[in-house]
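User: My advisor, Dr. K., asked me to get a structural model of this assembly before our group meeting. I'm new to this, so sorry if the format is off. These are the inputs:
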Amino acid sequence: MTGLSDSFQRPINYLRISVTDRCNLRCIYCMPPGGVCLMSHEDILRYEEIYTIAQAAAELGIDKIRLTGGEPLVRAGLPELIQMLARIEAIDDISLTTNGTLLKRCAAELKQAGLRRVNVSLDTLKSDRFELITRSGGNISQVLEGIDAARAVGLTPVKLNMVVMSGINDDELLDFAAKTIAEEWHVRFIELMPLAGEATPAPRFVSAGEMRKRLEQLGELEPCLPSIGNGPAKYFRLPHAKGTIGFITPVSEHFCFRCNRLRLTADGKLRPCLLSDDEVDLKKPLRRGISSAGLKQLIEEAVANKPLRHHIAEGYVPTRRPFSQVGG
Ligand code: SAM
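Assistant: The format is fine. Below is the predicted structure of the whole assembly, which you can bring to the meeting.
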């Protein structure tokens, strides 16, 4: 097999890069109530360092990159980084996961820099709830305007990520699904994962099976064939709908056997699995002047250590970092 593959013969071609641990929201499912300790600026990888790692990873077989955070758009000069990454010949897809609050003002610049598409987190359609879920004075209309701006400049398809929480926003499942009928909305319902250090199952957990049962009130969910995307979501369509409904099921039906990804944290640790604490430090060797061959060896080491699967359904929750510091 050419390219990068792990010890279970899974091809690894996707790198998610967290460009910052800072976020302008404090979502209840992502950040602990007491907040998190922020990384020092000195600890955060510089764009040149991210580029060097991405270049080495691309030479090994990575061809897709997603930028995430924290909130990636709070980091100054993100289009510059995108331009640098877009110059790497082997990279054929650069995408971004964002909360959308800052998207309107920079969508065109991001597109011009070489960004292909965006996923936007949107957990409610109600403005008072938005404030509750994001624990901020954030404004949902900024997010909706950001989504429109992304569509207008062609950062498409815009996928909307909703973390479904019992008693918080699960009563909006049908509203989100109904939006996919008349408009080209691509909504992904995500099962709530327990936060770092929290007992599982999370009390607000709703399984995708339960979500599907409720959605059937709107009609039969027809599987999208051939299957869409190369990520973990399984996609369906309501009868005659313009848009799609995806389910991401990390808890009730893990998709580790198809996992093709690595994650780079903002402070330069390469994580083979979102839900395991194992990391390989790239920053220190990089700052000590490691060669490209040495860097590639470290990346291969992380890939070789990729676990077969995570164990959150059995109660194992990584403890070291909250999602906001891994890049969700
Ligand atoms: N700030 C950006 C955003 O809001 O999309 C990017 C970072 S955020 C950590 C990335 C994704 O992680 C979000 O789409 C969110 O759905 C997901 N996420 C965070 N915490 C989660 C949890 N406890 N369970 C499920 N998904 C979670």
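One thing worth pointing out at the meeting: The pocket of S-adenosylmethionine is lined by residues 23, 29-30, 68-69, 71, 97-99, 121, 161, 163, 190, 192-193, 195, 323-324, 328 (CB under 6 Å).

User: Perfect, thanks a lot.
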